[in-house]
């Protein structure tokens, strides 16, 4: 359950410069206790750099990170002990097995090694637990990284592209694990290029571009702010990619497209009935229709495009 009064992670004017490149530019955001928080942006937007500063793995050029009110930094061991971290490009000693690998991390965190076998089984690597990690696929290494992040039952998880390199079955496993951890009270920040997963999982999302915060809100509120309207999808047998004459002229219709036997209409709510009535007047058969809510991908693209125009 989200506690809107308690901020678990806060960045204040967080900035990071690498010589001539300003990777993160005065980033201000708050993550509430108990929420799943999506952290999005194009490649090179500054996501991984921000995550490293939150974890205390790199120093800010300016600003600060607060974890439960305490300033984060490389010497704050106790803060990091309560954080599970999965980096974007995780790697382990290739000559160790998953059991040996997680035993090592248990020693680092001071945890009982009896948790290792259940953790391995939990991410679906039980049959490979005595194989050397050097023989693993990228997806299997990623799953081992998820298991590693949960050692010690931290209350905060920072997951950088947790579903990268995974097939559909393993993506579901990681998704279910995130939901399970959150139900137990964990606060989770994760970045991902799989926007559908972010849309399905996250309570709020922050979108950054070129190091700057572009937006931070729920997907529904962002879509409303950008006036991204639901899309009507109409199945018309025999349409064959042709747009019926007159649909684009209906008041309130913003965009129309057709592919095979499906007509896509973006419009005000009041125009949808007029579109269906026009199709009926043309004696065209409607086998099915549905309204599709705005996607995170549409929101993301429009936000970044608008920001680019402001810069221009």
Task: Give a short summary of the structure.
The chain has helices at residues 47-54, 77-81, 98-109, 116-122, 138-149, 168-183, 195-201, 219-225, 269-281, 296-311; strands at 3-18, 21-33, 36-40, 62-67, 70-71, 83-86, 156-160, 187-191, 204-209, 212-217, 231-235, 253-259, 262-267, 288-292. With 312 residues, it is of the alpha/beta class.
Task: Sketch the topology as an H/E string, one letter per element.
Answer: EEEHEEHEHHHEHEHEEHEEEHEH
Known CATH architecture of the largest domain: 3-Layer(aba) Sandwich
Give the number of domains.
Answer: 2
Question: Average pLDDT value?
Answer: 87
Shape: globular
Quaternary state of this entry equals: single chain
Explain this structure to me?
α6 (168-183) links the parallel β7 (156-160) and β8 (187-191). The model has no long low-confidence stretch (mean pLDDT 87). The strands form 3 sheets. Strands 6-7-8-3-9-10 form a 6-stranded mixed β-sheet, sandwiched between helices. It has a 4-stranded antiparallel β-sheet with strand order 2-1-4-5, with helices on one face. Strands 12-13-11-14 form a 4-stranded antiparallel β-sheet. It has 312 residues and is of the alpha/beta class. It has 10 helices and 14 strands. The longest helix is centred in the middle third of the chain and has 16 residues, at 168-183. 33% of the residues lie in helices and 29% in strands.
């Amino acid at each position: 359950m989200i506690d809107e009064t308690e901020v678990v992670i806060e960045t204040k004017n967080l900035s990071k410069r690498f010589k001539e490149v300003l990777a993160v530019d005065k980033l201000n955001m708050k993550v509430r206790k108990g929420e799943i928080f999506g952290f999005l942006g194009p490649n090179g937007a500054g996501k991984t750099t921000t995550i490293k500063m939150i974890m205390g793995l790199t120093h800010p050029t300016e600003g600060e990170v607060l974890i439960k009110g305490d300033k984060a930094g490389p010497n704050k061991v106790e803060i990091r002990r309560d954080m599970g971290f999965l980096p974007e490009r995780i790697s382990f000693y290739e000559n160790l097995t998953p059991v040996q690998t997680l035993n090592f991390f248990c020693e680092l965190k001071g945890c009982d090694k009896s948790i290792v076998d259940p953790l391995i089984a939990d991410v679906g690597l039980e049959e490979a637990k005595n194989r050397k990690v050097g023989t693993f696929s990228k997806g299997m290494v990623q799953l081992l990284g998820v298991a590693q992040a949960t050692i010690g039952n931290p209350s905060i998880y920072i997951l950088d592209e947790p579903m990268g390199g995974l097939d559909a079955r393993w993506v579901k496993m990681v998704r279910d694990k995130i939901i399970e951890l959150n139900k137990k009270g964990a606060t989770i920040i994760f970045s991902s290029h799989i926007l559908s997963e972010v849309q399905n999982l996250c309570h709020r999302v922050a979108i950054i571009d070129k190091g700057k915060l572009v937006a931070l809100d729920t997907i529904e509120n962002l879509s409303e702010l950008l006036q991204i309207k639901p899309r009507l999808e109409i199945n018309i047998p025999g349409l064959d990619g042709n747009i019926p004459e007159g649909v684009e002229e209906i008041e309130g219709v913003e965009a129309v497209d057709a592919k095979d036997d499906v007509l896509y209409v973006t419009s005000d709510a009041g125009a949808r009935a007029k579109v269906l009535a026009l199709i009926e007047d043309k004696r065209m058969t409607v086998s099915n229709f549905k309204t599709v809510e705005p996607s995170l991908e549409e929101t993301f693209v429009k936000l970044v495009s608008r920001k680019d125009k402001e810069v221009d």
